[in-house]
Design goal:
The protein has 176 residues and is an alpha+beta fold. It contains 3 helices and 7 strands. It has a 7-stranded antiparallel beta sheet with strand order 1-2-3-4-6-5-7, covered by helices on one side.
Length: 176
């Protein structure tokens, strides 16, 4: 398990903004990728001071669904990237170029096929784009939903080094 981008000196101190911080977790060929992704996200949210609200549990569920979808439908999850800004950005890189689509017909009570509907309901925005030999599926949760003080101002979002330029089709879904 390889992580990068941890804040120097450990967890965030109270009052210190986390904007622009980025953490990456390599998951290619890792057993238990969903559990490792959840644990990594839980530690990151705690370090950033974004674990004090119910929305932090929403973020953990979104990560679980995106990593599980990559494992089940996209030749495995390659990497999980968390970026702090005006929102928590969750990027999951996988090994298949087919962009995801929520199933048109939901079957309540029947297992499977609900992951993207959960992502859609719990995130503020989500989307996907082709990248290299695979794709990135991403979701965003507004930081105000994750902080103890939703009125605290956030600095302009700084970009974390991404996986490269967008290529191919991009899908963005605003959820409300």
């Amino acid at each position: 398990m390889n992580t990068t981008g941890a804040a120097p000196g450990g967890p965030r101190r109270e009052g210190v903004p986390v904007t622009g911080q980025c953490r990456r977790l390599a998951l290619r060929s890792v057993r238990g990728a969903v559990a490792k992704g959840r644990d990594f996200t839980r530690r990151t949210l705690r370090d950033w001071g974004w674990d004090r609200r119910e929305s932090a549990e929403d973020a953990l569920l979104v990560v679980s669904e995106l990593v599980a979808n990559a494992a089940l439908h996209a030749s495995g999850c390659h990497e999980l990237v968390l970026t702090a800004g005006e929102s928590l950005r969750i990027d999951v890189l996988d090994g298949a170029r087919t962009l995801p689509r929520p199933r048109a017909v939901r079957r309540p009570g029947v297992p499977g096929g609900h992951g993207l509907h959960i992502v859609q309901r719990l995130s503020d925005r989500w989307g996907s784009y082709a990248h290299g030999t695979g794709k990135v599926v991403w979701a965003e949760i507004e930081s105000a939903r994750l902080t103890a003080d939703p009125e605290s101002p956030m600095a302009d979002r700084q970009q974390c080094p991404r996986t490269g330029p967008f290529t191919g089709q991009t899908r963005v879904h605003d959820t409300e």
